[in-house]
TrEMBL record:
Organism, as annotated: Paraglaciecola agarilytica NO2
Subcellular location: Cell outer membrane
Subunit structure: Homotrimer.
The name this protein goes by in its record: Porin domain-containing protein
Signal keyword on record: yes
Length: 385
């Protein structure tokens, strides 16, 4: 399992890759437009970690880093063309890690120093008309997409469990991935989104399936779906969502089924926002909360996230608690990860946000008999355009 975790962390570009940013219109004429948007962030973080091994021996260490937060730095380009009653759009976005200063002192000299990760997470086109929208290309999945988009720590730092290698990792901090939701990994897909009807909107997608192993067989694509509901009332709004995922794999003649359901609700009024979300899966997302890592359905995962925030002018205050439990129903190999956090966001100017955050992360993993207590304080800034 530890090898899988390291592989997922190093090769899968772990990040929640969503940001609500303004965009710059580069060109617009006769229904034809081209725009760009971007995000840059950096945080100073200080982590104090205590771990306990199978023999009950405790160790502790403190670590300071200057690194990016939950969202990677990115730049995106958008094209659209209105053709009579049909609109064609394209988006490409590129995500860059700045966490490359000194992550592996045991490496050869040639591997030290800068080596910024550049990752393409969105490269798709959409066709829109009265009947809805069809997306073709690479984009984030639908399952648990709304859970992560509605995380109040989206522009912040979140959990940095040392068990997952996040304190010194070359990618991002984790927000509440593995402590409340799974990460809707970018996937090649064909997805249909319906028009809104009485506040409801549905999306269904055929995704490139995630393989259990190099020699596994997937006869059908991965299916994902999302149902959204939005409404407004005097000085407030309400939204709710439900998502699902299903795929099957065959390994050495044995069929393995993976499935999951995600859900949540958010209400805003008088500057207050309350969010509750959760999910449950079988054989999916059981390693570090990465939903592209699949396995047998005897591995069951459940997560929940509760958050409250208050916004006063340019100030936003956040309280958060999330937990994920992993259980193998064929053995006693279980794990529990949870995160409790406080955060303060100050919009200094439109497009410039200062962040101060504290997170307490705990991990208890029975297969390696590891216990972890991690206290992380981070302060940083986020610039968007």
């Amino acid at each position: 399992m530890n090898q899988l975790m390291k592989f997922g962390l190093l090769s899968a570009t772990i990040a929640s890759s969503f940001s609500a940013v303004a965009k710059i219109e580069v060109y617009e004429n006769d229904g034809l437009s081209f725009s760009a948007d971007g995000l840059v962030n950096a945080f100073y973080s200080n982590s104090s970690i205590e771990t306990t091994d199978a023999a009950g021996v405790g160790t502790d260490r403190d670590q300071s880093r200057v690194r990016m937060g939950f969202l990677p730095n990115n730049v995106g380009f958008n094209f659209s063309n209105q053709l009579s009653d049909m609109k064609i759009e394209m988006r490409s976005s590129f995500w860059v890690s700045i966490n490359d200063t000194d992550n592996n002192r045991d490496a050869s000299p040639a591997d030290l120093g800068t080596g910024s990760l550049i990752d393409v997470r969105q490269f798709y086109a959409t066709v829109k008309a009265d009947w809805g929208e069809v997306l073709i290309g690479k984009d984030f999945g639908l399952f648990n997409r709304a859970n992560i988009l509605n995380d109040e720590l989206l522009l912040g730092f979140g959990q940095t469990s040392d068990f997952f290698g996040l304190v010194d990792g070359g990618n991002v901090s984790f927000g509440n991935i593995s402590t409340g939701y799974t990460y809707p990994f970018p996937k090649a897909q064909v997805t249909y989104r319906s028009p809104e009807f009485n506040g409801f909107k549905i999306a269904v997608g055929l995704m490139d399936p995630n393989k259990v192993s190099s020699d596994s067989s997937e006869d059908l694509p991965r299916f994902e779906a999302e149902l959204m509901y939005n409404s407004t009332f005097d000085n407030g709004s309400f939204k709710a969502w439900l998502s699902g995922v299903s795929q099957s794999s065959e390994v050495d003649g044995v069929e393995q089924d993976q499935s999951g359901v995600g859900y949540g609700a958010n209400v805003k009024f008088a500057g207050i926002a309350l969010t509750a979300s959760g999910y449950s899966t079988k054989g999916l997302g059981h390693v570090a909360g990465l939903d592209q890592i699949v396995g047998p359905e005897v591995i069951e995962t459940d997560g929940m996230l509760l958050q409250a925030s208050y916004t006063l002018a340019d100030h936003r205050f956040v309280m958060t608690y999330g937990r994920t439990e992993v259980e193998n129903t064929n053995s006693d190999l279980d794990a529990e990860h949870e995160n409790t956090g406080l955060a303060y966001f100050n919009t200094i100017r439109p497009g410039l946000t200062a962040v101060l955050e504290y997170n307490h992360t705990e991990a208890n993993v029975t297969d390696s008999l590891v216990g972890e207590d991690n206290d992380t304080i981070s302060i940083g800034a986020v610039v968007t355009f």
